Amino acid sequence: MTAPRTIVLAATETGRRLGADLAAHVGGEHRTGRPRDLLAEAWGEADALVLVMAAGAAVRLIARHLADKRTDPAVVCVDDAGRFAVSLCGGHEGGANALADRIAAHLAATPVITTASEAAGLPSLGSLGERFGIRAEGDLAAVGGHVLTGSPVRIERDLPWPLGPVPAPVTDDPTAPLLRVSDRITAVQVPTVFYRPPSLVIGIGSSRGVTAAEVGDLIDQALAAAGLSPLAVHTAATVDLKADETGINEAVTARGWPVVHLPAEALAAIEVPNPSEVVLAAVGTPSVAEAAALHLGGELVVAKRRSPMATVAIARRPARGRLALVSLGPGADDLTTPRAAAELAAAEVVIGYGPYVDQAARWTTRGAVFETFGLGQEVERAVRAVELAREGRAVALVGSGDVGVYAMASPTIEHAGPDIDVVVVPGVTAALAASAILGAPFGHDHCSISLSDLMTPWNLIEERVEAAARADLAIAFYNPRSAGRDWQLARAREILLRHRDPETPVGIVRDAERPGQAVTVTTLGALDVATVQMTTLVLVGTSRTRMASGRMVTPRGYKSEVF
C-alpha cells in the first residue's frame, strides 16, 4: 500500500509560508497559485488536503466537490496564524481527525474535532480493529448513534480475529444492533457494522499479455460468487515469473492490495486440489493460482476459476490473535512510551500483576477487560494471556520497567506458539531510571544482576557477582533484599570489596520515578544493607566511578577526557 498523499494549499502569502512548513512536517506537497484552481486539480489526487485559510473560505471552496465521505479526501483547515487545526470532513474514514491532531501538536495549536464519538470521548466504530488490519463497512451511522446513547450491541465473530475494545455494553438480545467480524457478505435483519479481517489471499495465474480488465473481472466474480468481501483481502500472490505481468499488477494495484511474487519451487511444495501438468511444464510448478492463494497456509475457499487468459483462487489464511507484552516503564506516566500507550488503547484484555494493571488502566479504551494476578502467579499469567490470544483477542500483558528484563516476556514467549502474533514493547528499565536519577554511573560497561534466589540457585548468582567484580563492571542489583531474603546483598558486598576500593560510589534508589522515591549516595564500604528493601535498586560503580557535583559518573575512557 502506498503512503497517503497530502496536498497543502493556502490563500495568502502568510498562509503559504505556514503551508510550506506543514507540508514538510507531514511529508506532503505544497502547491501555490489560485486556490480554486488548485483545489479542483488536487481533489482527485489527494488522500488528504490541508487548507491554510479561514474556515468559511475553506467550506465554500470544497462544497462543490463533496460527494461521499468514504471516497472524499480528508480535509483539515488551519488558520493563517496557526492557532487552530479544524477537521472539516473525512474525520474517521479519511483520517482528518488524526491529521488535525498531528498538525495541532506540531504548531502547539488547538485541534478542533467535532465528530460525535470524539465529543463523547469514545473511539469511532469505524476505527475498531484498524491496528490489526480490520476494515469496517455497513451501517456505521445507525450503530454508532446507538452506541453514543449508551445502549448495548451484540457481537458475532465468524472468525477469531482481534477487534479491540468495544465501547458499548454487550448483549445477547437478537434485536440489538450487531457488530460482526466476518469476511463474508451476509444478509442481516438489524443495523450492522461488518468488520472485515485481512483473512483472504487471492492467488493469480495468467498467460502472457493478459489485460488488467480480464484479471480484475475474474477476481471480482470469484469474490462475489463466494459471497466474500473485497475489504477482507490481505494479499494477492502469483509466481515470480509474472512479476512483470502488467495486467496482474495493474488489476491488483487498482484494488488497493499488495502483490507478492513467489518462486516456482516454493509454490510446487504446496499441496493443491487441482494440479496441472501443463502448468508444471510451463512455469515449474503444478499450480500457480491455488498454490499462491495457500502460501500463507489456511484453507482454500474458492478453487481455481478460469477465464481465457487468467486463473484465480482464494484461500482463507489462519486467524491470528495478538499478544502484546507491554512495558510500562519505571512508574512516571511520561516514561511510558507512546508505543506502549497505543498497544494498551487497542487491547481487548489487559492482564498482569494487580498494581501494574492499575497503572496501565489510564491508557486503555472504554470496553477493555482487566484480569489481575498476584505475586507468584507468573506462569498462570502467561498461560492465560496466550489462551486469550489464541481465541483471537487483542491481549496486552503488562509489566513495569521493561517487560523483557526480569519480567513476563520470557515465560510468556516460552508458552506462545507460532499460531499467534507476539510483539514486545520495550520500556525504560528500573536500572536506567535509577541511573538517570543518580547521574551517569553506567557511562561505560555495566550489567544487571538479580539477587533473588527464588528461581536461580545462589551459587550461580554468586559466580556472576564475582565475574562482574573481576571485570570491573558497574552493576545494578535487582531484587536486592526482602523480608525473606535479608543476607544476599551483604554477601554480594563482601565479594565486591575483595576487588574494589571501599570508597567506590554506590547509589541506592527506592521507588524510582514513583511518589515515594528516595535517593541515597554512599560508598561500598559504608553501605548499610539494612536500609535496602525490595523496591530498591542498588547501583555499584566501577573503579573509575566518581562523584561530580553530587552526581555519580563513570567516565567513558576517551583519551582526551579530563576529570
From TrEMBL:
Residues 38-118 form the Cobalamin synthesis G N-terminal domain. Residues 200-315 form the CobE/GbiG C-terminal domain. InterPro entries: 4pyrrol_Mease, 4pyrrol_Methylase_sf, 4pyrrole_Mease_sub1, 4pyrrole_Mease_sub2, CbiG_N, Cbl_synth_CobJ/CibH_dom, CobE/GbiG_C, CobE/GbiG_C_sf. The keyword Cell cycle does not apply. Keywords: Cobalamin biosynthesis, Methyltransferase, S-adenosyl-L-methionine, Transferase. Its EC number is 2.1.1.131. GO terms for molecular function: precorrin-3B C17-methyltransferase activity. The keyword Methyltransferase applies. Residues 323-527 form the Tetrapyrrole methylase domain. PANTHER family: COBALT-FACTOR III C(17)-METHYLTRANSFERASE-RELATED. This is Precorrin-3B C(17)-methyltransferase. It comes from Glycomyces luteolus.
